[in-house]
Amino acid sequence: MDIQKNTGRRILNQKGFSLMELMIVMVILGLLASLVGPAMFKKLGTAKQGTAKTQIEMLMTALDSYRLDVGHYPSGQEGLEALVINPGEDKWDGPYLQKGLPKDPWDSDYNYQNPGEHGEVDIYSYGADSREGGEKEDADVGSWQ
C-alpha cells in the first residue's frame, strides 16, 4: 500500500515544461532550420546534376553497344527508343537498357541528336528550367562535358 501512495504522490508532484520554455525551443529550432535548409537545397541541385551526368554516361555506353551490334548509331527519328525497342535492325541484340529509358532528374526526356554538334552523337538535358543555357541547377548537362 505504501508503494501505491508514493507512486501516486510522485505523479502529482511532477511538472511539465512551461509555454515560454516550449516557445524558446521552437525559436531555436526555427533558427537552425533557416541556417541549414539553404545549404541542403544547394546540395540537392548539385546531386541532380551529378545524376544527370551519370545517366548520360550510361546512355552513351548503351549507344556504343548498339553501334557495335548494328554498325551505326540510331538515326534521329529512332532516337534513344532504339535502345529499348528494335527499330527494325537485323543485328539488333537489345534491349540495351534493362529498365527502359530513364527520365532526367527533372522528369524530362533526354534529348538525342545524330549527328551531334559536339561528337558523333549528343545526349543532353536542359536542366531544371527545361530551357537551353542556364546556370547552376538550370545549366545544361551534355555527353560532351
TrEMBL record:
Start and end residues of each Type II secretion system protein GspG C-terminal domain: 40-144
Protein's UniProt keywords contain Glycoprotein: no
Membrane topology (UniProt): Single-pass membrane protein
A UniProt-annotated Pfam family: N_methyl
GO BP terms in the entry: protein secretion by the type II secretion system
Major location category of this protein: membrane
Coiled-coil region(s): none
Region (Disordered) location: 96-145
Name by which UniProt lists this protein: Type II secretion system core protein G
Recorded name of the encoding gene: gspG
